[in-house]
Amino acid sequence: MNESDLRVLRTRAAIKSAFEQMVCELDYDQLTVSELASRAHINRKTFYLHYQSIDELMDDVVIEPTVAEFTGKDVSYASIDDIAGIVRFYMTMATKQSKLHERIMCEPSYRSVYERISRRIMDYRREHNKGALHLDPLAENIVYAFFESNSPTLYRQWVADGKKMPLEDFIELSIGLVTHGMAYAVPGYQQQLDHQSTDSSASNQ
Fold first, then answer.
1. Which one of 17, 107, 166, 202 is most buried, counting C-beta atoms within 10 A?
2. Does 25 lie in the same domain as 116?
3. What is the pTM assigned to this prediction?
4. Distance between CA 119 and CA 74 in Å, rounded?
């Protein structure tokens, strides 16, 4: 199949458009090739010329682009300010995503899809920030698990509350919760927070 053929491009565009609509409207277990073929005005055989399964399509349309977007920014875990920056970047990106991405993050039926995205992002970051936390491997595993899970949990609650909290207030609250949680486990982070607190107190006197 010629990937640059105009008919191929049009068919793939129709498949992706129909798929995005389905994700926004249906639960994960309702995503079927038959439903997609009907919406994209193609037959099932045509779908299988392009993708082997719905999961492969999900990877192409959602997972790979999202992972690329989040791993495209170099991040550091060297300081508590770096952690705050990562949280701000995550929340800012999450709040700018389309309805499709909000569904992937927030709808329970898509939780396994989001976990695939999150795991690939965190595996990439751990590989590129080895030793940054200065912890033994078991403690590091726990800290990264904490860091990986809390930002999406906070975001989901913000969405569930109707996004009523002003965005900047939500981001600042999230940063405070995450950085202080990380500081509990990483001595260097706690020292930096203590130093920031001392500087703030001195400037207010």
1. 107
2. no
3. 0.82
4. 17
